[in-house]
Amino acid sequence: xxxxxxxxxxxxxxxxxxxxxxxxxxxxxNTKFLFDIKPGADQPSDIAVAPNGDIYLxxxxxxxxxxxxxxxxxxxxxxxxxxxxxxxNRPLGIDISENGNVFIADTGNHRIQIFDQRGxxxxxxxxxxxxxxxxxxxxxVAVSKIKNYLYVSDNDNHKIKVxxxxxxxxxxxxxxxxxxxxxxxxxxxxxxxxxxxxxxxxLNTRVQKFDPFGNFVSVIGEWGVLPGRFFRPxxxxxxxxxxxxxxxSYTGAVQGFTELGRFLGVVCENNKRKVFNTPVxxxxxxxxxxxxxxxxxxxxxxxxxx
Amino acid sequence: MVRDLFNLKLMSVKYRTALLTxxxxxxxxxxxxxxxxxxxxxxxxxxxxxxMWMDDFRTDKxxxxxxxxxxxxxxxxxxxxxxEEICYSCHDGYVKDSRDIVWKYNxxxxxxRPSKNVTIPPELPLSVKDELYCGTCHSAHGKGAAPHxxxxxxxxxxxxxxxxxxxxxxxxRNEASYKFSNGHPVHTIAxxxxxxxxxxxxxxxxxxxxxxxxxxxxxxxARGEKILIVSNKGSELCATCHEQQKNLIETKHxxxxxLPEEKNLKQQLPSESGPCSACHMPHNSSGKRxxxxxxxxxxxxxxxxxxxxxxxxxYKIKHTGKYSHPINIEPxxxxxxxxxxxxxxxDGTKNPEGKVQCFTCHNVHTWDPNFLTNKGGxxxxxxxxxxxxxMSNHASALCLECHxxxxxLITSDHNLEVTAPEEKNVQGFxxxxxxxxxxxxxxxxxxxxxxxxxxxxxxxxxxxxxCTTCHNNKGAAKAxxxxxxxxxxxxxxxxxxxxxxxxxxxxxxxKTADGKLVCITxxxxxxxxxxxxxxxxxxxxxxxxxxxxxxxKANFPSSDLCKACHEDKALVDGTDHDLxxxxxxxxxxxxxxxxxSGTCGACHLVHNAPNKLKLWARPYGTIAQSEDVINSLCKSxxxxxxxSENKIPPIATHPEERLINNVMRSNKESLDYAPIYDRRTxxxxxxxxxxxxxxxxxHQWSPLLKxxxxxxxxxxxxxxxxxxxxxxxxxxxxxxxxxxxxxxxxYHDPEDRVExxxxxxxxxx
Lengths: 306, 765
Known about the structure:
The complex is a heterodimer of chains A (306) and B (765). Chain A is mostly beta strands. Helix content of chain A is 6%, strand content 46%.
């Protein structure tokens, strides 16, 4: 009996030696490449799709928002460099409410600006910190249906700040750290169907989920370079099935998880892992198309999730 | 013992099973996983950058990024840690936004081998390919790294401290040693650096006004070429500090327009280098002032100009010409020049004790000193108001800053702006445009020496032509000619052993001790009155007199000008022959009383003399047919009806017309000098008759006293009376022996004379 046991172990060892790399094939979420959108942006960061299907791209280094239709055809752009209304200073994040209001994290101006779908300025408010010596660093916004909350990720200050959609401050949470509810450079956010907030926690290499009031719910991902792990997570999006997709700008992967954090697979094309060029902001539209902003690729890649 | 350890028979079954399982598991691990070099797993903070230290690479699973061998702990490898991708994964805005700084604009080259112009110190590593890479300058663990930066030249990721660009200078030693490499100064404070410079992206040094590498260069996010903070193709960066020099743009010195095909030392066309760098290179220039073109030896403050404007260049632009204002000379005025007219040391630096160079008069960056917006232009011919002059030369103001001694010209007839405004120089400019100096002298491309700017006319040589160009019967000064009888010119004084304090000249107009007497020996054409400045000159073409008339010295009341050469003749001053003493109202032939003509001029006219003999200024006196003509000069006055009619000798001539040889008495320097004159011409000769000046020296009262008169009318005796010699040296002795000592007293008295009256000799009483 003991010898049989030994022989089984030897056999397993030899088999492993024969198939060292392919023994554990990567899990895939297959997609189909549709088209690229190259609107002339310079290291774009984030993306949002309006109720009418138009795609809004943050072209921060050119201090403008580029608007293309659902097929990628140029429509218009708005914004210019400066501190005035309608002007930007290297904005990074965007979200669009159900009524079509466009919320821009105007990062360098330390404020949030609100536009209509045509790019007309509606409102703006400053994102302040508790200390006059510290400036806010709003890098993304997320619109919630709960109390019209507008979540703002204050990247440098490791906080999530909550305003109403008219700019009135509600509350905030977070501090620098690795514990739950703590952040090391919170980045992009999205809100799920339960109005829970998912926050990409960049250097903690995870996505934290909170209830609408900032109470920690769960965490997705861990640090590493194996599938299901993150090295530089940046963007987060949800599909109709409430699958959470997270982009990793260093590994070039976009990976899917259940909301409970179970790894589902890496976005693939023909069962082969799709490697994006610095994927950052991602969005899944109502047609189940995955739109990936490739920052150094200066484009949006549009894929159909199969 | 060891053998016992592996002797399975000695072990229990339980232990043997466990041991075998362990061995097999170890074997399985060794064979089923790739062979990794020895690396350490790291804490998570380390792995933030040192991704390859992750344990995930040490599994059998496919990773999301390829495992790459190498890290900083492995010899000859670089590691992913310092790859651009790792940097970007944080600096994309979601930890720190450096996108525009590092990845949007220009940045220091990486992934290239260092050029031969830099020296990479061992502290700054190159990549495995011997190339520059991010890690050459950056490290989170270097001496220059501090978590949040600090004032001591450290940032989060500098490998070495970077105080005032010291990190740059570790490699760019050549540029740091600017004095040796002819580069733009660094670590110097020469001016207040403008705020605009910093708003453009310049890095402030420990002293905000100190120039450092990062004053002009930006390592990441540079908007300009060569990682300059802004583009400098139009010299915008240079002009930010060197604002005054910006005036050069669009002038003739903007080589983009005037010499578009001429490359600088870096083989850049002006269109490529920009207007400043066409002539100045910030690094590795040819010499002083960052000169970007070949520079010949000599003072840079001149040689830079001659790079293009020298006679030996091929540039088809203005050259200075054969006759150009001298450079490398002391300023002609001893007075301190104004600050805007600098002098220069040998090395081309400004020095109040220095010498005149091109830059003394020219500011090569500004076409029009009074109207900065006036750029002139490629086809515009300059004049005295612009032409890159440091100040407008209107009314020759610039010239006169140095040539203060010529300033009196302005208030004289030689100011042609007033007296001959239509008169033009060779450039075609009339006097009001060229200025009073420029109508006769131009600083470059002059017609002749002394920067002469007019077509020459008349005269035997240039030194005279300078005067006769105007003073001729067709010239601007045709009313002021010298006539047929005038003081000799072109006379070499050395030949006559005459020493003078007045300047003598060669034919080119250069002063020389061996030179000759010319017009400008006596005349200083820039100064009407040698004694007192003329302030309110009326420009009425006034007639001068012995005190002015552009004379180098006033010739009245003392005959100082004539005295400069004719010292013995000037002893006439104050004697009875000085008409200022004896006949102040008497006029010469041109109507001048002695106050106008001067003592000498009462009898001699240096210009327009009516009489050729001795340029006699008075009417000749009447003489006998057989009498020497020279006596007619004396009789101008010493005759009846004239000013000296009370001084007429009864007999004025030797009683017999005897030919006398005065060979032994012809030396003017000798005490027994007794000249004999040709009867007809009046010139000195050695054989002739005794005439008045044989015994009388009209210019000296007493032969024993070489001094001026005392301004009193005197009655003479045998010891003075303008006698040439004392009695014992008298020429009479030669024939009459010692009798002459007694007889000469009665020479002019017919009653006492032994001889009878001779026919033809009139006796006047």
